[in-house]
Write a sequence for this structure.
């Protein structure tokens, strides 16, 4: 029994190591993210790439069923056999041991990436205070890009964005965006396993989760039952996690950048449309009148995609989505993201810096 409880030490030890190293992001960047962790992720993702399905999803299902059987069996023995206290103590010890091991593996295999040097810093993208005018200029630029690129993409009979290929084709095409971006930002380079479709994607829609990266298998798992323009962006987002960028806002920004550097206009459009949504929300907080004025420039074709995305997610709003958001917020905060889910909005600062230094000068 005492040996099982010794595994509980994994939690404080892992936390202490993570906390101490958080003060030395350059150490994590050079001796963990770009070396040890990079090698481990590539190895895991290549191994799991041998099968077309998500190994992580299979592990989750098997673990859930195994846990359910174990709990029912233990409950049965507790109610029908003597030594009830010992059996309940064993149950607690076993569950605690498994949780401790999983947490330690999470930190070892990926979790320390939350404290690496930010992508913005390593890419020399300034995160500064920008005026509302500069935010409006960025939004106007994104509107124009979306209008132009929409004309180069495929649409269904209702005018909604339609990727010209299967999900498998999309996943195979996605790495090309990283290949191009890596010419400017080497930390995005490397050969990894392809993204994986999530079989129970429809269930994930009720949680508003569009993708899940698995540190235990190195897989970028993607919810494939979403609007296709969202599917493209989410694929690139989860691939950013696969390359060791844990922060959600950085993964969003990397997804944007790898989309717009892709040679396929479908990827480019998905990147600009997603960025448009983030900047739209930011501008609405500070200058709604200017936002309304600039939205007059949106083409009818782009508006169709925006409305389709909005209407799609309204169908899944409810208590499950609210609970999932709370769980995700707690997860982010436990990993050092102090503003939790709201860190998704920090992508706008990166977009402003990238626009002022790069896009605006092209």
């Amino acid at each position: 029994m005492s040996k099982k409880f010794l595994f509980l030490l994994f939690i404080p030890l892992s936390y202490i190591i993570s906390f101490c190293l958080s003060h030395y992001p350059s150490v994590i960047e050079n001796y963990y993210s770009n070396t040890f962790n990079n090698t481990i992720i590539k190895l895991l993702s290549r191994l799991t790439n041998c099968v077309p399905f998500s190994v992580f999803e299979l592990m989750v299902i098997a673990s859930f069923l195994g846990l359910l059987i174990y709990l029912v069996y233990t409950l049965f023995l507790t109610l029908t056999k003597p030594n009830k206290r010992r059996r309940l103590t064993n149950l607690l010890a076993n569950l605690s041991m498994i949780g401790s091991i999983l947490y330690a593996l999470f930190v070892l295999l990926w979790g320390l990436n939350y404290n690496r040097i930010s992508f913005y810093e390593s890419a020399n993208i300034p995160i500064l205070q920008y005026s509302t005018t500069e935010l409006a200029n960025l939004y106007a630029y994104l509107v124009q890009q979306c209008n132009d690129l929409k004309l180069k993409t495929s649409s269904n009979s209702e005018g909604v964005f339609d990727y010209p290929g299967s999900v498998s084709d999309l996943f195979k095409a996605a790495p090309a965006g990283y290949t191009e971006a890596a010419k400017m930002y080497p930390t995005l380079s490397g050969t990894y396993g392809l993204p994986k479709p999530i079989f129970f994607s429809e269930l994930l829609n009720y949680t508003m989760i569009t993708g899940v990266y698995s540190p235990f298998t190195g897989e970028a798992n993607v919810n494939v039952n979403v609007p296709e323009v969202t599917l493209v962006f989410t694929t690139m987002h989860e691939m950013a996690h696969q390359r060791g960028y844990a922060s959600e806002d950085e993964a969003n920004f990397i997804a944007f950048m790898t989309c717009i550097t892709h040679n396929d206009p479908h990827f480019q459009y998905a990147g600009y449309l997603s960025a448009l949504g983030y900047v739209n929300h930011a501008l609405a907080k500070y200058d709604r009148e200017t936002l309304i004025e600039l939205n007059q420039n949106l083409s009818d074709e782009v508006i169709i995609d925006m409305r389709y995305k909005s209407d799609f997610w309204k169908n899944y709003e409810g208590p499950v989505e609210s609970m999932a958001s709370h769980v995700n917020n707690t997860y982010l905060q436990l990993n050092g993201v102090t503003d939790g889910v709201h860190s998704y909005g920090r992508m706008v600062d990166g977009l402003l810096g990238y626009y002022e230094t790069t896009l605006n000068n092209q």
Observations:
- Residues 2-115 form one domain.
